[in-house]
Amino acid sequence: MGPGPRALEFFYDVMSPYSWLGFEVLCRYQKLWNINLKLQPTLLGGVLRDSGNEAPALVPAKARYIKNDIHLLKEHFQVPMNFPENFFTDVVKKGTVSAMRFLTAVNMEQPHMLERVSRELWMRIWSRNEDVASPQSILEAAERAGLSSEQAQNFLKKTSTAEVKNKLKETTDAACKYGAFGLPTTVVHLDGKTHMLFGSDRMDLLAHLLGEKWMGPVPPAQSSKL
User: Fold this and answer.
1) Which end of the chain, C or N, has fewer beta carbons within 10 A?
2) DSSP string, 139-193
3) Which of 7, 45, 2 is nearest to 26 (CA)?
4) What's phi and psi for 31, nearest 5 deg?
């Protein structure tokens, strides 16, 4: 019997388009690389405040760069991304706290659904130019991901509980303790050591750490259709 899966934590916020890219790559590689992928819904704002960093999209030159970058990355990663028409009013101003609390609630009770619900929330913001702040928007994403209306309503109610709020804060604090200064942040637990990698463009380095082969963002025989 070979060694068991290597533990890997992926800290992300659906406000971050680069988190979506890293998320899809890790979902594609998790079986190929024999990794135990633990998705960790996190608040980007909390990580930025703790580290003294600033969101790239709030820096005008970086915001212009990101718009062009996403156009190129959507083809390279084969992820259907588009920069939202009203990013600052519909995403930045409204925030993703409610969405991330919802994902936290899902993770606490039905972690097997976390991948699908997370993807649907990214799709709303970064592919279909839709809202993720209102309760109805979150419910639509959850049901589209495969949760029943009753399940989605249950998780939505739990977003206001201290248990869910505290869990999201604990996860965000954990990312900060690992040294996170932005998202996505990937933490690899390997041979008694912990390695923290920032961004969606460190997957080749992650492969090196794991002793695995990097075959690009869409490995052969893996479907990229979302």
Assistant:
1) N
2) HHHHHHHT--HHHHHHHHHHTTSHHHHHHHHHHHHHHHHTT-SSS-EEEEEETTE
3) 7
4) -80, -35
- 33 close to 3: Cβ distance less than 8 angstroms: no
Evaluate the CA torsion angle 152, 158, 163, 167 in order and state its sign. positive
Nearest to residue 156, comparing CAs of 116, 107, 102, 111?
Answer: 102
pLDDT exceeding 90 applies to what percent of the chain? 86
Compute the distance between CA of residue 189 and CA of residue 101 in angstroms, rounded to an integer: 26
Smallest CA-to-CA distance from 180 within 50, 36, 14, 19 is with 50
> What are 23-38's pLDDT values in tens digits?
999 999 999 999 999 9
Ramachandran class of 37: left when φ > 0, alpha when ψ lies in -120 to 50, beta otherwise? beta
138, 132 contact by CB (below 8 A): yes
40: helix, strand or coil: strand
In SS3 terms, 84-131 reads as: CCCHHHHHHCCCCHHHHHHHHHHHHHCHHHHHHHHHHHHHHHHCCCCC
| Closest alpha carbon to 199 in 43, 72, 12 | 12
